[in-house]
Amino acid sequence: MERDTRSPGGSTLALFSMAVVLGGGNFVAVRFSNLELAPFWGAALRFTLAGGLFAAFAARLRLPWPRGRPLGLIVVNGLLAFAISYALMYWALVRMSAGSAAVILAMVPLVTVILASAQGMERLSRRTVLGALVSLLGILSMTVGSGALAIPLTSLLAVLLAAFSISQSVIVTKKVSHHHPVMVNAVGMLTGAPLLFGLSALAGEAWILPSQARVIAAVAYLVTLGSIGLFILVLRVARAWTASATSYLFVLFPVVTMLLEAAFLGEPLTARGLLGAVIVMAGVWLGAIAPGARSSTSAPAGAGVSDRPPLPSGEPGTP
Q1: Model confidence over 5-40: pLDDT tens digits?
Q2: 282-302 pLDDT, tens digit each
Q3: Of 153, 127, 106, 158, nearest to 296 (Cα)?
Q4: Cα(256)–Cα(277) distance, integer angstroms
Q5: Model's pTM, two decimal places?
Q6: How far, in Å, CA of 99 to CA of 156, rounded?
Q7: Contact, 20 vs 253, CB < 8 A?
Q8: How far apart are CA 296 and CA 288, in angstroms?
Q9: Nearest residue to 315 via CA among 156, 183, 172
Q10: Which of 170, 138, 160 is nearest to 239 (CA)?
């Protein structure tokens, strides 16, 4: 059975909070990356560099290479999390604002709990669904009425498909979360990067290196904190929490993005935005963090949850 370590003052909640900050920064960094780098090429460059660093860490730590079904799941996770979803997101963010994308990605917890329930990993509870809907309402209140949702249909469809891909990747991440996060990310990113290179070649994108200081800084952030830091944290959270609870990361990202856009892009903070942020946090508390949510998101006995023990906190490479 899954260990439920969620508690307002627990270490997992601290890791969750750190992941929220790093992930929220990614939306802004991708916007800067897209100023000079074509979207598929920018994503391919990011995950090739990050995956290479993860592979070097794995070799340094002498981690065993996954085999059999675990390797297959990690490869699938790499295609979903690092190729399909990011290809769609990078492409869409050329044509739409980060806030608009964040609104659509607020669907991720709701989609995740439905998919996890359909796959026998979790029970579909009213509390979890209500928390996801409250969070979605908060994101909508931050943007609707400002014109942020007036986006091309193709971009809308791209982000919708990205939301479904991310939701399924969170479920697969839960299944492989007992493996060392360095090895999982090394295999996953180096699996996804070649597909991104192929899409870039098919699109006829120019393969250039960044030259503008702000783009170089954005790419450096995306490779290090935005990839290496974020995805280690996501795996550690997924190891302790259910897939649906982990997916609430994606509704808190926009709150951080809103603050960073105000700081770095001059976007004004509004009463509507601040009220929406409060509603989002209420939904996350209800669906993922509140003590009563622990029993409501528990997986049925033996249903898709690893019985492997977690890595000891002192193991090399773990936070």
Answers
A1: 444 436 888 999 999 999 989 888 988 998 999 989
A2: 777 776 666 555 443 444 433
A3: 127
A4: 9
A5: 0.74
A6: 13
A7: yes
A8: 10
A9: 183
A10: 170
